[in-house]
Amino acid sequence: MAHVVRGVAVRAEQEQFDRLAEGQLADRLMSIAESRSVRALGAACCSAITELTGSPTVGLYLLDGPEPALVYSRHVADGLLDNYKAGFWKHDPVLDCIMTRGCAVDGETVIGPQQWRHSPSFEMLHEWGFAYNMGGPLWCGRKIIGVLFTATTETGAPYTPRARLRMQMLCRAGSLALTNMMDTGELQAGRSPGSQPETAGMLSASLPPRSADVAIRVCRGQTNKEIAREMGISDQTVKEHVANLCRRFGVHNRTELAACLLSARQ
């Protein structure tokens, strides 16, 4: 009975988040968009994300090296961050989906409600007291230059479509802030010490495995159908990966993409 009561309370709390006043929502998004440093952006996201999505945690990564670089986190155990950095990011279905689709997604939806609690993603989150995770892309022009993650400890409250929509809005505001930082040169000051500007070679190394596999085959000159057949995926999935790679490297078509990737390997 206590479990049922707790579930009802959690759902009621989620409905309260869903009814967040438009004025309050706009204020939170503006505070993110007006950020002028990476640290300020992280703090603004942390302040807003609880009200926007019901999550208390923030993990802000920039894609400026051979692996995602953590530049801000709040309310996340160091052990979870260490596990992610140690290699889990290479097999993270949420990150892979963000990079492929270019939109906010949550782990349970990507993996499926029936499989979620048996997945490596859930096991890692559960070890550190979390139940569900969600993330979205941070853009600068046609490139995804960062990723924003959050997670919730509420076991009976998976992310709703409205929470994902609000995460998408939050990421759009964050993208505007990062674009302004790039324009003013402020972004470099917010990166981790010793980080270097992105190159195509470094970016390809930071891609999730499936996207990297598609990139290799594009360099070989294989068609979408050939790639799909060889990898055992659909033509549409290949198209999505290619489109994402074009956005990721700031090129307009697969010919430019292949040239960009090949030049980085020379």
Automatic annotation (TrEMBL):
One of its GO terms (molecular function) is DNA binding. One of its GO terms (biological process) is regulation of DNA-templated transcription. InterPro entries: GAF-like_dom_sf, Sig_transdc_resp-reg_C-effctor, Tscrpt_reg_LuxR_C, WH-like_DNA-bd_sf. SMART domains: HTH_LUXR (SM00421). It comes from the Bacteria. SUPFAM superfamilies: C-terminal effector domain of the bipartite response regulators, GAF domain-like. The keyword Cytoplasm does not apply. Keywords: DNA-binding, Transcription, Transcription regulation. Residues 186-206 are annotated as: Disordered. This is LuxR C-terminal-related transcriptional regulator. It comes from Bradyrhizobium symbiodeficiens.
